[in-house]
Structures are given as structure tokens and as C-alpha cells.
Known about the structure:
The protein starts with a helix and ends with a helix. It is α/β, with parallel strands linked by helices. It is 44% helix and 11% strand. Strand 5 (218-223) and strand 6 (228-235) form a beta hairpin. It has a single domain (66-265), classed as Uracil-DNA Glycosylase, subunit E (3-Layer(aba) Sandwich). It has helices at residues 3-18, 32-37, 58-63, 66-75, 80-89, 122-127, 134-144, 171-188, 198-205, 211-214, 238-243, 248-265; strands spanning 106-107, 113-117, 154-157, 192-196, 218-223, 228-235. The chain is built from twelve helices and six strands. Helix 4 (66-75) packs parallel to helix 8 (171-188).
Amino acid sequence: MSESTRAELLTTLRWLIDAGADEAIVEAPIDRFATSAQPPKQTNPTPANPAGKTANSAAAVSLATPPGMARALAASCTTLAELKSALGAFEGCELKRYATNTVFADGTPNAGIMLIGEAPGREEDREGLPFVGRAGKLLDRMLASIGLDRSKVYITNVMNWRPPENRAPSPEEAASCLPFLHRHIELANPKLLILLGAVSVHHVLGLTGGILKLRGRWELYQSVTLRATIPTMLTLHPAYLLRQPLAKRLAWNDFLEISEKIETLGLA
Length: 268
């Protein structure tokens, strides 16, 4: 190529660029649809998984988390004894590291009436039973006022281990315990639920707001496995009543309604 020809070609190329041309053309037409349908070439292909593992799958990631492990473990239990054993072996909740005992339940599982509190306190942590401290003694008196005792009800908590300093459980801690609680309800198969306190109401039914506004209401707990709805009373926690004695009259009204519901359901 002569120097004059080269200079002419460069001049023409600069003119095309200044005119906005950004693509060269060829003699034959190009099928752009066929080109776009072709998968792009992989310059850095993903390494093969020689073991055939699915660690990146959604299911595997779910099972790798404490709530996922709790769901799988709880779902595998077919009796309350198995659930208690599984809960005792579960290490996915940070609270267990600081607790003395796993607090499972107390009372009669097939009584038909199930009470769910918030979390174990110091006395409950020490004895491994729910509601055995001051709040528990008040709960016993509340039950006695409508003709019940622990042989006629079944008692558990949302949390199975005591939070340090009796603080409210974190969302992560609750998420690790809730699968066991839901399975607990399914296996006990109560005809009536009584939720004691805001933490219980929030985690069992998903309702938010102050307990003074929520208490006294009848709600329905929906059990997917049982394919049934369970009438559920929202009321005050005995520990709250110890701090606010004037609120006992509100709890008394709630328990009167509970008594009427027990008769209606034929659980008396």
C-alpha cells in the first residue's frame, strides 16, 4: 500500500468516525436474531462440583441456618417425647449456651387446654419447668379461680431457654425456637389456647401492639398440619400482674371468658 493510499484511507476513516459510524459492514448480511440467540462464550467457566453437592441451593442454605435446622428437626418428631428429646439436643439457639436447663412443658398434654407464656425466668431455668417462680404461683391461683389446676391444663413457653437478665428474646433467638413451638401445639392438639403476654401473642399469632390493647380478644390459631383452627384467648402475663396489681381485674375478666369457653367446648 502506497503512502498516498494509506493517507486517503485514514482520512476517510476519520470522516466516518466523525459522522457517527460505529460498526463495520461486510458484503453478506448478518442475521442479528441468530447471533443474539447464541449463548455467550464462558471465558471463566464455573468449576465442576466433583462431589455433586448442592450447598448453593435454596434448600441447602435453608437447612444450614438454625431456623431451617429447627424446622427439619421439629417436623421429624411424631410424639411429644421425641420433640422434647430433639429440643434437648438442638444447639441452634444461642440462649442455650447460657441456660442451666431446657424448659419444655408442665401439666397434662391431652387436657385440651394449652397455655403459652414468654420465656423461662430464673426459677424456671433452675428447675427446668415453666411457671414455677412467683409468676407461676400467681398463675396457679388464676387457674384455681376458674376451677383448673396443672392436672387439667398444659403449659409451655415460646422460648425454651432463659434469656440473660430476663430480657426479651431477639428475632433470631425466637426464630430458632418457633418451629418447635408450632410442632408442640400440633402434637398436643389442644382445643383451646391461652396466650400469656405480648411476646407470646406476637410470636404465636403475629399480632403487634401493646398487650393492654390486645388482651381480652378471641383469635383463631390456624394449624396447617391439623387442618383446624383453635380458639385463642389473649391475656396478660402473670409477671406483668405482679408489677401492675391493678391490672388483675382485667385478667379476671379474661379468665371469666375462658371459663365460659371451656364449658362451651365441653372441656370442663
